[in-house]
């Protein structure tokens, strides 16, 4: 059976939506979102067209890294709800055709995790070897620090333990030793547990660090870390044929490709496209898509049933680490000139609308790109209504403000006092008074309705998710145009990166009469000339999606 006719490989054309329960919807008035609140708002996601919900960490945590510091991999943070609430959420989501995936954060634990507490207390602890210890830090202890503004070494001396332990991230997040078979088995059990509760896979945190065995004392006799990833995937697929691993791998393309595994894709099901994302911002800054074109051409094809995860923003800073220093400065100048918008020179702690001066045409063009470029689009909550950031919040928290439901107090997120909220609400031009779900649902011209339309068309257009993609050559420097073909169907898109109108001539078909281009986003149609070319007039930041129809082709909606 053709894969495009089944949902067996559902992730290939999914719409993933990431949210933090804590900041989504509060039902008990304590200022913190909860699982029941998310359940109450599940129809917002269903109406939007979301097919996969990625829950950021909901496990018990001292919350020193927004929940990425976990004290019980099998638990649910009681402030958010119970296992019962979670199972109800998964059931409700399933009823709306939405699968749920969870964050799997097993590179490290919190230093408050009972395993680490036991490990540091005694060399005889059964958990001592679950972490990576040394009597002396290695010479390269300060290479590859992820948070250089907060940490000076990857190794921290622990008084109680009398040794140094490895931590890739904050010092309160000791790394687990995945070369230890007991740790490997425990991670497998964690995966099995959540699958049994009904989830459809995981977003896997920090995959290269998880597999990294740099701290090991006996590098000669190490198992291949990719074997471990293969084992994880094999276990996952045995337990649940429909489950996925969506990996956070921010490496150059060639290295990232290795995390998909062999030609059949036996490791990660999806990898985020960090390079494409960074090049897109560079192209937006330059009003010229050349850099994005280069990235899309260089991007390795994933195995047939695997997919790239494409995104515009996520819960971390907009990292620019794969650009050159000059390129990074160009993006800063265009989208975050003020130091308060930058995160220690690494990236931008901003959301897209304020970066673009809330220019609606430009915003729409960016989301049109997201849903038409090859890859599975991943949205971060609030993007669908064009939420802004709160620069008064510390560091990466700027983009983690409460969801804006209405124009009332706290944006309808919670009835608690503002001071009690899990995170401060956005203020200024993009505050809930101006940007909220309730208003945009009622406004046919809203960003919310634009994104709904894009999602609907994306879901019914297999060419976009399954097709072979060709970036088209043409004479108009500000236009990105690509053609995708699948099972006899052809779709062409064009995106104008410039604030000036553009005309573009595209070769979209072979020579022949009666070929037409039917617009998928608006009631327009254009003739393709007998030599197979199509001429399009694009407004500043304009975008078009067109299906190419030959005489006799069945008209598709
Ligand atoms: C990556 C997550 O996206 C980030 O938010 C977190 O701080 C680190 N991993 C550490 O878990």
UniProtKB/TrEMBL annotation:
EC number(s) from the headed UniProt entry: 3.2.1.1
Record key words, sorted: Carbohydrate metabolism, Glycosidase, Hydrolase
Keyword Hydrolase carried by entry: yes
Pfam families found in the cross-reference section: Alpha-amylase, SupH-like_C
Reaction it catalyzes: Endohydrolysis of (1->4)-alpha-D-glucosidic linkages in polysaccharides containing three or more (1->4)-alpha-linked D-glucose units
Glycosyl hydrolase family 13 catalytic domain sequence ranges: 18-434
Gene3D superfamilies for this protein: Glycosidases (3.20.20.80), Golgi alpha-mannosidase II (2.60.40.1180), Oligo-1,6-glucosidase, Domain 2 (3.90.400.10)
PANTHER family in alphabetical order: ALPHA-AMYLASE FAMILY MEMBER (PTHR10357), MALTOSE ALPHA-D-GLUCOSYLTRANSFERASE (PTHR10357:SF219)
Recorded family membership: Belongs to the glycosyl hydrolase 13 family.
Protein name: Alpha-amylase
Naturally occurring in which organism (per UniProt): Kribbella lupini
Phylogenetic classification of the source organism: Bacteria, Bacillati, Actinomycetota, Actinomycetes, Propionibacteriales
């Amino acid at each position: 059976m053709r894969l495009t006719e089944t949902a067996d490989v559902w992730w290939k054309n999914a719409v993933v939506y990431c949210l933090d329960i804590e900041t989504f919807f509060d039902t008990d008035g304590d200022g913190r979102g909860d699982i029941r609140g998310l359940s109450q708002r599940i129809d917002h996601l269903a109406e939007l067209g979301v097919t996969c919900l990625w829950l950021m960490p909901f496990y018990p945590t001292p919350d020193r890294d927004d929940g990425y510091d976990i004290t019980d991999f099998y638990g649910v943070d009681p402030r958010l709800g119970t296992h019962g609430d979670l199972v109800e959420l998964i059931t409700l989501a399933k009823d709306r055709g939405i699968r749920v995936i969870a964050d799997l954060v097993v590179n490290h634990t919190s230093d408050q995790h009972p395993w680490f507490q036991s490990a540091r207390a005694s060399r005889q602890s059964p958990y001592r070897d679950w972490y990576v210890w040394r009597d002396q830090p290695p010479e390269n202890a300060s290479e590859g620090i992820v948070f250089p503004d907060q940490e000076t070494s990857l190794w921290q001396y622990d008084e109680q333990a009398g040794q140094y332990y490895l931590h890739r991230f904050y010092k309160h997040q000791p790394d687990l030793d995945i070369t230890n078979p007991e740790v490997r088995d425990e991670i497998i059990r964690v995966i099995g547990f959540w699958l049994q509760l009904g989830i459809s896979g995981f977003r896997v945190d920090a995959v290269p660090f998880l597999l990294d065995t740099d701290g090991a004392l006996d590098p000669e006799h190490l198992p291949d870390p990719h074997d471990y990833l293969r084992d994880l995937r094999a276990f996952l697929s045995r337990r649940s044929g429909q489950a996925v691993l969506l990996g956070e791998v921010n490496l150059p393309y060639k290295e990232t490709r290795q995390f998909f595994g062999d030609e059949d894709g036996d490791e990660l099901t999806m990898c985020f496209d960090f390079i494409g994302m960074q090049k897109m911002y560079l192209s937006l800054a330059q009003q010229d898509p050349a850099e994005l074109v280069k990235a899309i051409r260089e991007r390795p094809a994933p195995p047939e049933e695997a997919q790239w995860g494409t995104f515009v923003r996520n819960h971390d800073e907009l990292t620019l680490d794969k650009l050159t220093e000059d390129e990074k400065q160009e993006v800063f100048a265009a989208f975050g000139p003020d130091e308060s918008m930058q995160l220690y020179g690494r990236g931008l702690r901003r959301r897209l609308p304020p970066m673009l001066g809330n220019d609606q045409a430009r915003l729409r063009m960016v989301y049109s790109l997201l849903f038409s470029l090859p890859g599975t689009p991943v949205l971060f909550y609030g993007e669908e209504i064009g939420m802004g950031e709160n620069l008064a919040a510390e560091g990466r928290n700027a983009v983690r403000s409460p969801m804006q439901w209405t124009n009332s107090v706290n944006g309808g997120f919670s009835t608690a006092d503002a001071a009690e909220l899990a995170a401060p609400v956005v203020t200024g031009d993009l505050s809930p008074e101006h940007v909220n779900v309730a208003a945009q649902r009622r406004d046919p011209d809203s960003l919310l309705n634009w994104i709904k339309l894009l999602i609907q068309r994306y879901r019914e257009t297999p060419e976009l998710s399954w097709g072979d993609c060709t970036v088209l050559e043409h004479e108009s420097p500000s236009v990105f145009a690509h053609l995708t073909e699948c099972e006899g169907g052809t779709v062409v898109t064009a995106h104008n990166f410039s604030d000036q109108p553009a005309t573009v001539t595209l070769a979209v078909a072979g020579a022949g009469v009666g070929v037409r281009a039917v617009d998928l986003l608006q009631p327009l149609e254009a003739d393709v000339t007998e030599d197979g070319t199509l001429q399009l007039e694009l407004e500043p930041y304009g975008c078009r999606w067109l299906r190419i129809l030959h005489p006799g082709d069945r008209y598709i909606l």
